[in-house]
Specification:
Layout lengths: L1 E7 L13 H11 L4 H4 L2 E3 L19 H20 L2 E7 L5 H11 L5 E6 L20 H6 L13 H11 L13 E4 L6 H10 L2 E3 L1 H7 L1 H11 L5 E7 L22 H12 L4 E7 L11 H22 L1
Parallel strand pairs: 1-2, 1-3, 3-8, 4-5, 4-7, 5-6, 7-8
Helix pairs in contact: 1-11, 3-4, 3-6, 8-9, 10-11
Length: 319
């Protein structure tokens, strides 16, 4: 499978501007390292709706959800086309809301297959318009992918118009949920709200906090996680850079959280699932160079992961 880069410079689902520049910051990291990485592969530039950030939001509990829907549809189509062309899409995104588009594209390309998801993130992204305390849609993609409303935990009033937009979001790519809860595994969660915890408990979603991985060993936990996804035909990996330790790496992401992964741990997790030969799409998101207090450190680290994982994938293809 030929690698194809999908560049999605959208940040309208986030609460802080700047992740739309994350892809350019990663490219600058490659240039400064005299690395021609971004000349090696074909790429697709996904049109964005970033200018809508200046529009007054109609829905405070799901800001700009109408435009996020359109962006997710664009990403979904790009990912679907890439997969149908027998490519391996590596999606470089701004904020994490677009991950719903990525998962939707995978589901649309393989409507009769069982999809698994590895979500490497400090946050669960399991909020809905009914539960979100911030109204930022980048905290909702996984709930949409699971087809969850979480009405038992609702704290927000939602209009009929917003409800219709949320329903539309859940049905992007193909109608209904994109994966089952038992086929979702989290790594690195450490900043969730009670409403998200309630979904995790109710649906028995497996999460591996960092302390468990380090105490029980990564190998043991990876083996368990792969066993959980053994019935999946394909696997999608989403890597939010805020899963890494902001004190160790940098604060160059919208919602940095301390006590996260280091680079070697991230690479270990991702490579473990690549070894299954079921991974069909890999995504990196939430690099925000405007918030980086260490130059371009977060983007440089993201590029390190990108380059090493791409090399690993190519070596697997040759094996």
């Amino acid at each position: 499978m030929q690698i194809e880069l999908i560049k999605n410079r959208s940040d309208i689902g986030a609460g802080t501007r700047g992740s739309d520049m994350g892809i350019d910051a990663i490219e600058i990291a490659a240039i400064n390292n005299h690395n021609p990485f971004f000349t090696r592969y074909p790429y697709v530039d996904v049109k964005t709706h970033n200018e809508t950030i200046y529009n007054k939001s109609e829905f405070e509990v799901a800001r700009r959800i109408n435009f996020v829907n359109e962006q997710c549809e664009r990403v979904s189509e790009a990912v679907k086309n890439s997969l149908m062309a027998k490519h391996f899409p590596i999606v470089l995104s701004g904020d994490h809301s677009s991950a719903l588009g990525t998962l939707s594209g995978i589901s649309a390309a393989f409507p009769d297959k069982t999809i698994g998801a590895i979500w490497i993130d400090a946050h669960a992204d399991l909020h809905t318009p009914y539960t979100s305390p911030s109204g930022n849609v980048h905290g909702m993609p996984m709930a949409a992918a699971l087809g969850e409303d979480n009405l038992d935990s609702r704290v927000n009033a939602v209009s009929e118009e917003l409800s219709a937009l949320w329903t539309k979001m859940k049905n992007i790519g193909k109608k209904g949920a994109k994966l089952k809860a038992e086929h979702l595994v989290y790594f690195g969660l450490r900043d969730t709200e009670v409403q998200e915890d309630e979904i995790i408990d109710r649906l028995d979603i497996r999460e591996y906090p960092i302390h468990e991985l380090r105490y029980r060993s990564f190998e043991t936990c990876m083996s368990e996680a792969k066993e959980r996804l053994k019935d999946c035909d394909y696997i999608y990996i989403s890597f939010d850079v805020d899963s890494m330790d902001c004190d160790l790496i940098s604060t160059g992401t919208g919602t940095p959280v301390s006590k996260g992964f280091d680079v070697d741990e991230i690479l270990h997790i991702i490579k473990s699932f690549f070894d299954t030969q079921k991974v069909v799409c890999f995504e990196i998101c939430e690099v925000n160079p405007l918030l980086d207090t260490r130059g371009n450190r977060m983007a440089e680290t993201a590029f390190e992961v990108l380059e090493k994982i791409t090399d690993y994938k190519e070596n697997l293809n040759k094996a």
